[in-house]
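Hi C.,

You asked whether I'd gotten around to modeling the 437-residue construct. I have! Everything is below, sequence then structure, no commentary in between.
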Amino acid sequence: MPRRGINANPDMSPTSPWFIRRAPTFSMQVDQNTYYTIVTMDGSTGDVLGAVINYPYETQDAIGYHPLLQARNRTSPVVFVAYRQSGRTSSVSPKWTNIMAGPDSGAQFDLSSFALDQQLSGPIAMNVMPVNKDPWAAQQRIDQRGPNFCAQFISEALGKASETFIQRFDRSGMDSFLTVGFSSSASSFTVCCSEFTYVDSVETANPLSDKTLGAITIRTQPDIRITRANGGGGGNSDRLYTIMAVDPSTPKNALSTPERPYTLWLAVNVKESQGSIAGVGTANNVLGYAPTIPAPQSPPHTIYFFLFEQSGEITDATQIGPKYSDPLCADFVLGRCLFQITNFTKDYGLKLRAASWITVVNDAYARYWMIKSGQVEWDICAGQPKYTIPCLRPGELAFAKARVTEVSAGSTLTSSIRRVVLSCFVSLACLIVADVI
């Protein structure tokens, strides 16, 4: 993101922590040969965010600057206070640097006492900058092993989804952050006349990112972890959860609608242990994980993962699929397609606690899987680079292209007929299609 300058102003629209992550620079009218101390503080808590001395001639940090990591749903003022020094000073006393740099400076730092001890006059100038929350600040708090406030950002983003069933969710109970991690093992295969090799990879769903993943990355059941919004890891072993993964992007009306998505995964009676969702296996799976495989030319698919807290143990799990899926669905998707998720969550008293989602696109693995599943290779591979019927080795390809040039000299052939002619020179199939040409 390009660097952007922001001038503090009490009447400005709130900025975000990302834009104040670097130490501020100051500009103010000063008396000649006079030095100043400027303290930057969180106006809500009194925490000291930074302090400089000997401004503007020999400016140096009394303590290093750190930004206000505002991650709560509120606006906090960052306050800049300037004092006149009695002269140039070499440092701030250790008593005050220790307090200002401490983790709880707001409870111990008193600005008036500090000014008195340092023989400062004023304050002679002041400014304020309002700051709102943003995801960057929330992540910084997590990285510093602080509270996790990401749930509120996820809830707000989820509320912007267009699907009808999502709009009907009660998001007021979303108090947790859901981590969905995919581990993809190395794989090599040939499809559409091209060879592909993938190395081991680990990816985590990030609903606030525009990143897309290929079908190969999400082909195995993900690992699930939850983090409480208050920073705790859970630990209530009596809690039971339902995990759901749905794809509302499957062919419209055939497998899903904005009200009734296609279900990729459904697990019930899942226990929480120290913030982990452990042991999601056959005992919990009502519908085992079946990953999305986007078709060629298909728009990106959005896969939603939901964590619902149950009101008690679900004892009739085998009845869920048949009861809430459309009975007219084909046998191989029965229990999954056109799933009445709104009715399901209401009937079982499920409370939405967390959500995450990813965007998945067609890739080589998706094409490979579709062909192995019996779909017509030409339908899947048409338009792919290097694709011919049949697949050609490098030497054969060069020979065939030369022969096509001879055949097409002095005539006009469509691109589709040229592909057929190209395949003829390396296969007896040309004897079959010659009459068509």
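If it helps when you're writing up: The CA atoms of residues 113 and 175 lie 40 Å apart.

Thanks,
B.
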